[in-house]
Design brief:
Strands 4-3-5-15-6 form a five-stranded mixed beta sheet. A four-stranded mixed beta sheet has the order 8-11-7-12. Strands 9-10-17 form a three-stranded mixed beta sheet, with helices on one face. It has 21 helices and 17 strands. The termini are far apart. It is α/β, with parallel strands linked by helices.
């Protein structure tokens, strides 16, 4: 359900004016007794807004002498990171508690935006229920913990069973290579010319969605990755990188993907989830495990989703290796470096992460549980028909390099994909541009030929 918000004002930093929204009842400018909580909200992602409102009510009842100011930042992912960085640039606007992507933890901790929470975790009994992977996700370069995981995710393929069958493929279609995906998209285009055969995120406006849901789902299915984990050096000129860009070129040159003008729209991800798939206008979508959460309840409820759509694992390039691949990430609650009362901030985090709240959030956000008590809950397992499938992809999954410079490096991936799908660069030239940017970020001594 959409909730109304009132204007909180604007944030002017570095010559930019950023509009923010806040919950009614919040004070403008948090004082020592008021916690400022910053998080993302979009048309297709309201689970955090629901969780934060519920937590605010619970927290203020538990601590009647404290107040909570909610600051939902209504923006897509890259814009959210930009606005959050501007807030963190000043102690007067910095949040006490932050909805923080795991891949931002190390860079934001190094930048001084976050503070470690190990002392508070040591006294929190629930910490023992979190799996080791979730604990690692919140670590900074110094080995200290800066965030508590809200859950994780995987990525796979959604396909419209009717459109796939009309193209002569089985209702339980499972591609075994990239060629199988392209061949299926070609068959759909021929059988159903009025629908988009395949969506893979490609634009700069999608930011990390393009990097992770799109490009890296291809790259990590080759013999190459972004970084050689044995040497901890970033790869340049790798065959896998070029092959992934060539996949994009083939898909868009043959008209198998969306119109580039649509694919570059910042709201394209929301349109895929809330319009194209429910309306039967898209046959194959490489996307994340959280999509069904928006169809189970809320403004975009789609009761027929589980009957209409099939789920398939993303194959490796030629079916080699493990045969399948996936990417995992996730988000945390982290404590801002300028929190005036760190204990109060952690108390809010702990309230948001009670078993009841964690279960509700996992259900609404389509997250894979990282707490043992929630993961074993029958209610959790029964709530979403896709949970079992997406959990099964964990054995094939990969995680982005956990380095402070990953976010800066990653931002150059959509530059490469967009230049290819718009015909502004060949895959070879796009890779060269990426490699040059990479060397500029990390230094030639931290790279090696792929």
């Amino acid at each position: 359900m959409k909730r109304s918000v009132i204007g909180l004002g604007v944030l002017a930093v570095g010559g930019l004016t950023i509009g923010l929204t806040g919950c009614a009842g919040g004070d403008s400018g948090a004082d020592g007794d008021t916690l400022r909580i910053a998080y993302q909200k979009t048309a297709s992602f309201t689970a955090m807004d629901d969780l934060m409102k519920k937590t605010k009510d619970e927290y203020e009842k538990e601590y009647p002498d404290r107040k909570v100011e909610l600051v939902p930042i209504e923006a897509e992912q890259d814009q959210y990171f930009t606005k959050l960085a501007l807030m963190n640039g000043s102690a007067d606007t910095a949040p006490d508690v932050i909805y923080e992507d795991t891949f931002q933890i190390r860079s934001d901790a190094a930048a001084g935006y976050l503070q470690p929470i190990d002392d508070y975790l040591a006294d929190w009994d629930d910490w023992s229920l979190y799996d080791e992977g979730a604990k690692q996700a919140g670590l900074g370069d110094d080995g200290k913990t800066y965030g508590v995981s809200l859950g994780t995710d995987t990525r796979g393929i959604y396909f419209n069973k009717e459109l796939i069958q009309a193209a002569g493929l089985p209702a339980d279609w499972q591609p075994e290579s990239w060629d199988d995906i392209l061949d299926a998209a070609r068959a759909v285009k021929k059988a159903s010319p009025d629908v988009t055969p395949l969506n893979i995120y490609a634009g700069k406006a999608q930011g990390e969605a393009t990097s992770m849901q799109g490009f890296e789902m291809l790259l990590y299915g080759t013999d190459d990755e972004l970084m050689d984990t044995s040497s901890n050096k970033w790869l340049t000129g790798s065959a896998g990188f070029l092959d992934a860009l060539t996949f994009y070129q083939t898909a868009f040159d043959e008209g198998l993907g969306p119109d580039p003008a649509d694919a570059l729209d910042a709201a394209w991800g929301s349109k895929v989830q809330n319009e194209l798939l429910p309306q039967g206008k898209l046959a194959i979508a490489i996307d994340g495990s959280w999509l069904p959460s928006g169809w189970i309840s809320g403004d975009n409820e789609w009761p027929e989703w589980n009957d209409t759509l099939g789920l398939a694992a993303m194959p490796t390039q030629d079916g080699g290796g493990d045969g399948f691949t996936s990417m995992s990430g996730g988000w945390t609650l982290a404590m801002g470096a300028h929190a005036k009362d760190p204990q109060a901030a952690f108390d809010f985090m702990a309230q948001a992460l009670t078993p009841e709240n964690a279960l509700t959030y996992h259900e609404e956000a389509g997250q894979i549980a990282v707490r043992s008590d929630v993961a074993a809950s029958q209610e959790y397992l029964d709530y979403n028909a896709s949970f079992e499938f997406f959990s099964s992809l964990v054995e094939y999954t990969h995680f982005r390099p956990a380095t402070p410079d990953y976010s800066q490096i990653s931002s150059n991936i959509p530059v490469a994909t967009e230049s290819v799908v718009t015909g502004q660069a060949s895959p070879e030239d796009a890779q060269k541009t990426y490699d040059e940017a990479l060397v500029g970020i990390v230094g030639e001594e931290n790279t090696q030929a792929g």
